[in-house]
Amino acid sequence: MNEFKPKTPEEERIRGGEAARLLDSPLFKECCAHIEETMAEQRRAVPLRETEMHTRLIMMEQLYGNFLDFFQQIAQTGRIADLQIQQKRSLAQSIFRR
Question: Domain ranges in the chain?
Fold first, then answer.
C-alpha cells in the first residue's frame, strides 16, 4: 500500500493540490451531499428492530468517512510539503544573498 506514496515534497505538493481541487470541486461537493442525504434517509427508514441493517449503515458511513479522510489527509500533506518547499527556497535565497 505504501508503494503509492510519493517520496519527495514536490510530489506530495502536486498530489495534495490534486486532492484539494477535488475536495473543492462543486461536483464533488454535490456528490458528497447526495451520499450524506441518502445515508440519512436510509437511517431514518430502517426500523429499530433491524439491527443488522443498522450495522451495515454504520459500516457504510464509516467507509464514506474513511474515503473523505483519505483525500483530506493528502491535501493537508500537500500543504505541509508546500511550506517545506517554501522554507527551503527562503533559506537558499538568504544564503545566496550573503
Answer: 8-97
